[in-house]
Design brief:
The complex is a heterodimer of chains A (225) and B (455).
Chain A (H helix, E strand, L loop, with lengths): L1 E5 L3 H13 L3 E5 L2 H10 L4 E5 L7 H10 L6 E5 L5 H9 L3 E4 L4 H12 L12 E4 L2 E4 L4 E4 L2 E3 L3 H12 L4 E3 H9 L9 H13 L8 E4 L3 E4 L2
Chain B lengths: L8 H49 L6 H13 L6 E6 L5 E4 L9 E5 L13 E8 L2 E8 L1 H51 L15 H53 L5 H29 L7 E3 L1 H18 L3 E5 L7 E3 L1 H18 L5 E9 L2 E8 L31 H11 L3 E6 L4 E7 L7
Parallel strand pairs in B: 7-9
Antiparallel strand pairs in B: 1-2, 1-5, 3-4, 4-5, 6-8, 9-10, 10-12, 11-12
Classes of the chains: A alpha/beta (225), B alpha+beta (455).
Chain lengths: 225, 455
Amino acid sequence: MRILVVEDDRATFDYIRKGLLQAGHVCDGLEDGRDALAHAMREPYDVIVADRMLPGLDGLSLVKALRGAGVRTPVLFLTAVGGVDDRVEGLEAGGDDYVVKPFAFSELMARINALARRPPAQAGSEKVKLAVLDLELDLVRRTCHRNGQEIELMPREFALLEYLMRNEGRVVTRTMLLERVWEFHFDPLTSVVETHISRLRAKIDKPFDRPLLHTVRNTGYSMHA
Amino acid sequence: MRSDFLRSTPFRLTVLLGAAFLVALAIAGFVAFELIRQELAARVDQTVTDAFTIISQSYGEDDVADLGDAVRSHAGATLRHERVYALTDKAGTVLAGNVTMVPAGSGWATVGAGALGVTDNSDDYRIFSGEVGSYTLLVGSSYGETKAIGRLTLVSLAWAGGLLVALILVTGVVVAARGQRRLDGIAATMHRVGRGELTARIATTGRGDDIDALVGEVNAALDRLSALVESMRQVSVDIAHDLKTPLNRLAITVESAIEADEAGKPVAAWLRQAQEEGVRINATFDALLRIAQIEAGARRARFTSVAPGTILERIADAYGEVAVEHGQTLRLTAPDGLPPVSGDRDLMLQMLANLVENAIRHCPPGASIVLSGRIDDGRVELSVADNGPGIPAEERDKVFRRLYRVEKSRTTPGSGLGLSLVKAVADLHGATVTLRDNAPGLVVAVSFPRHTPAL
């Protein structure tokens, strides 16, 4: 992937760049919002990572200008405070996701991956069935089967499994799950995600030979055969 | 502190009002004076006409003697020439009367005393002369009485005006002095507050007048201000304590890592500990920033109509299993169709999550936690009740403070910001938070105002 990182803090930029290079991506870095705008209009990037506070042109204005110019490249914001005004403002300006500083690189990477492979909006018909190996989820009938056996799921377990299966093969972090499945834009002090994952596992993995829901240490979870 | 007395507002108001009264009095006086003058002039004319008619009736068939007698008897009945009468022949010779000269012309006229040859009365005369047979009869009346009454009217008006001015000045001085005393009191108190004496308050008279209302507002503002300053001071102290402690631990951990490295020992464990400490410090800062942002109130612009039932279900659903893992139970009781409230869904979720997490973390295994929603007097009340250790009554006010932690809970994890955030979110929504004894345990209830669709 070709990723543009707009960040004026040298240490943060080096941290992101090192991680992206290790993951096999190409990374361009800029410190000034105005330079970034000119650059992003010219070059075809897969994802843009932009800090909210930038010299020259702030992150919000940068994204507004890009969207105004018809550039649809997904943008991920880095913000100082999440969950309150910054997040909403960022999304309203045309941003696609956000990560709160300080962040773990794995969190940023998981979100960049999710953004880059997110299908463009209104792209054909929605899937009505998801499948990972022999696990099937019928989104219309709201049923779940594995190996022909019906598995009963609570509504939130269904939502959790659906999100995991839609991101098959990718790492989803605990924070991503909290935001997408529970709409919690804050960090709970108790193990909400862990508890639900273990309940889900007991239903979809335990009775069967091959586990499909994997824990990625210090990062999150991944669904794959 | 004392400002110029003559420029004080009450005094100036009184003087202004007094001046307005004086002008009104002058206008009313002038009008009254004019009306009286006209009425008196009309009466003089009437008197003259009456006298002329009576005298002229005594004349009959060229008998001038009776007419002369009538004139003479009328003239004899008046003193100081208040009335004048004259009977003249064609040649202008005065045959009878109390004047020596007769001005030429007939009909109505106003003449000076000199024109009639009158010397003991200096007033002007209103005269009427007309033909009676071949003679001319003149009847007149002096304006003396009219002038006297006019003068009397003017003098009484002047007295009333003078008294009014005196009364205005005295009232002005009294009112101004009283108002000034109170204003000086307010100014003195504000001066004390300005110098940092935040407990100073302005005394009210209890009369409930406008100044009392103003003083009440000022006092209320001072209350809020001093509460704010006190909480800022408290927060500074708490931050110093609660953030300096983990920062200190962080420094020690890093130092230990350096020592271990120098001794050739592995340092990963130390660094992991330092990282955790950093995460905790960041979480505390993040919570403080969030509370500050919520308290700034900008989110109110994004309020939508939120169904409390869905919020309660989402929380019960998220934390039910967490409670089970802690050996506790979480139950939801809410009637169907709770009315919507105007609010911020994300913040309402976080508020209830904080309350449920507090209950889970502070209650021992076996505890039962009840999440409930109900309608109370038109308000929507969402509450979290537990049968855990509760909070002593004397500490209940303090738990909403930033970074405050009930003494015995200092060892359990948490930033001490959970309830401050709950309070901030509730305040943003115009909701009230109350802590009640659940005997045993604690009930935290958040009561939202009825949703007004206009919002």
